[in-house]
Design goal:
Distance between the termini: 33 Å
Helix content: 25-40%
Strand order of the largest sheet: 4-1-3-2-5
Radius of gyration: 18 Å
Structural class: alpha/beta
Order of helices and strands: EHEEHEEEHEHEHEHEHEEEH
Shape: globular
Number of strands: 13
Amino acid sequence: MSFTVAALYRFAPFDDPAALRQPLLEFCAANGVMGTLLLAREGINGTIAGSETGIAAVVAHIRALPGCADLDVKYSIAAAMPFGRLKVRLKKEIVTMKVPGIDPAREVGAYVDPADWNALVDDPDTVLIDTRNDFEVGYGSFDGAINPRTRSFGDFPDWWRANADRFAGKRVAMFCTGGIRCEKSTAFLKREGVADVVHLKGGILAYLEQVPEAESRWQGGCFVFDERVSIGHGLVEMGEKEGHELR
């Protein structure tokens, strides 16, 4: 038996995220779904796993929440259940940047489809920045990407402000695992006055799913936050040893 894994997020205004928590927890449990979901006033984020029908039911439930009809979801397959339990947590942010006033629902950088990403990053006037932390980058990244060597996403604003002059006059292209961190990082750069900033639509997961390996600019594995550890092209499970090859 295999399990369907869904990595999902949506920036949406939740007036009372605490009121959503228990019904969502109970619905996931009733459908045999495990994993972690985060709720905040700015929306929902998480990765869950279960049967194909169970995941479909939970995704439909989340899409019915206020502002979540266009929920971003990336699906993959796991040979074994990649989570040991179910958690639905309340947070101040669904992805922690610690910069007040950032609102990806209002303004973000331009999206670039995976099919168009290679041409963009091959442009010498484009600066490619990996917004993930240093540990994740150690599993794999795009050829030529800058690694800010942050310990957490909350360190990214300070890194950017210390290095922004290096990228003056360049297009800034950013990417992350599933797209959510880039929503915030591009919104942050727009507020910092960067006019030409773009990000990979659907993140690395969408790229590995849609771009043939023979045409890929990706090297190594993509770290994921479950027991599969890392995945590769076609979203195939790679594990610890295979994926962690750039360190």
